[in-house]
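Input structure tokens:
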């Protein structure tokens, strides 16, 4: 249980680096956009992995993929229906980031990052509040 709490704390600290960048109400430079893409990818990975562990420890639910984890998190009450729907779409973006040499794709992903940050910020809080 302490290890799970530690993982939640680590995910929360990592998330701060992402929200600090995309939480501003201004356009990002290309360098900032690229950094936001990378920060999103490692935050998504950290948070779904801690959710995976949380589901296993708290509810005995084993999931093997990010999308299965999102579906299980919705059933456990960690994500609302609309958050889960958006999170399922969000789960594809880390794989697309390697193709952001395509400017239109990079801009599309960047436009989704603020919503991704909202979901990623809410998810650990819901795990703390609703152990499953």
């Amino acid at each position: 249980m302490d290890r799970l709490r530690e993982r939640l704390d680590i995910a929360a600290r990592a998330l701060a680096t992402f929200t600090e960048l995309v939480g501003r109400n201004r356009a990002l430079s290309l360098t900032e956009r690229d950094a936001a893409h990378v920060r999103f990818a490692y935050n998504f990975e950290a948070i779904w992995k801690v959710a995976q562990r949380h589901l296993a420890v708290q509810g005995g639910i084993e999931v093997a993929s990010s999308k299965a984890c999102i579906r299980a998190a919705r059933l456990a009450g960690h994500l609302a229906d609309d958050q889960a729907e958006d999170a399922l779409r969000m789960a594809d973006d880390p794989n697309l980031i390697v193709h952001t040499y395509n400017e239109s794709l990079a801009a599309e992903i960047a436009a989704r990052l603020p919503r991704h940050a909202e979901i990623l910020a809410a998810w650990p809080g819901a795990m703390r509040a609703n152990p499953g």
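The mean pLDDT is 92. The helical segments are 2-22, 30-59, 66-75, 81-90, 93-96, 103-129.
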